[in-house]
Amino acid sequence: LRDASAEQRKKALKCDRFSDLVEILKAYLPSEPSALATYVVIDGAQRLLQWRGEQVLNSFLHLAELSCRKVIVIFIGEQGWDTFCSTSGTTPYEGVYFPAYTSTELRYILLQERPESAIESIYSAFLGTMLSTFTATCRNLHELRATLEPLWTQYIKPYDEAKASGAPLPEPRSLYAALNTNKNGQSSQPADTVARRERPNVHTGLTVPLSPAALALGRGEWPVPHDTVGSGAGGRLDFEIPRLTKFLLISAYMCSHNSEDVDKRLFGGQIEGHVAVRKRKDRNAGDRERE
């Protein structure tokens, strides 16, 4: 395909179905046993769980058998393999588990991905203040990227305005203070609490997916209005917890809302019945001894 035209390559590598991928691997990978392995890396593998009606996950696991080529599939996901087992019906040959990013690691990664026009020292100070607010409740790199991009636009705006007008350039502390200030007399508080101390514009609710605050920030609204709860999370949890812990919380909630009579009926019937039968047998045994 190196000498083929762009149209020919596009037609040859057309991959609308999974069977097309298998045919491409058969056609362009060597079939010799001594050939080097080809790695297929699937990032965000948890998205495959949305296609439970299709055998996509199971097909990827058997890609080497289907293509008759030396193909190794690597899944990169945010959930443990036990989440995929019910769908795939198999277990991986080897699992590698990575701990969550630390604040230092997140800062290093995001600093390397800074906008081209951003000054490294200013962006580093921006990350320092933002991550100190967000990392306590969110360490998801994708969500932090989505949150920091519009925040950086608002953060650097006074600096760009001062630079264009020739005024003294503000320091990072002043930029963060301006970001947290509601301008033009706007307030995110209800009318009866305007006189109180204003809540900061930068809060943990901005990193909650699909929360009112996150959606408003994505639309470019600033400052983002607080909701009635005040966290910007629309009453939702503004932090992530493991999947099994969620089931534990649901179970604890259900148990705490059952009355004592319901618990006895559900869990105490067999025990009480066993005790009653045993007492009846003991009484009959005593009657036989007296006879």
TrEMBL record:
PANTHER family: ORIGIN RECOGNITION COMPLEX SUBUNIT 5. It is found in: Nucleus. GO terms for biological process: DNA replication initiation. One of its GO terms (cellular component) is nuclear origin of replication recognition complex. The keyword Transport does not apply. Pfam families: ORC5_C, ORC5_lid. Residues 241-285 form the Origin recognition complex subunit 5 C-terminal domain. Residues 123-164 form the ORC5 lid domain. InterPro entries: ORC5, ORC5_C, ORC5_lid. This is Origin recognition complex subunit 5. One of its GO terms (molecular function) is DNA replication origin binding. The keyword Transcription regulation does not apply. Keywords: DNA replication, Nucleus.
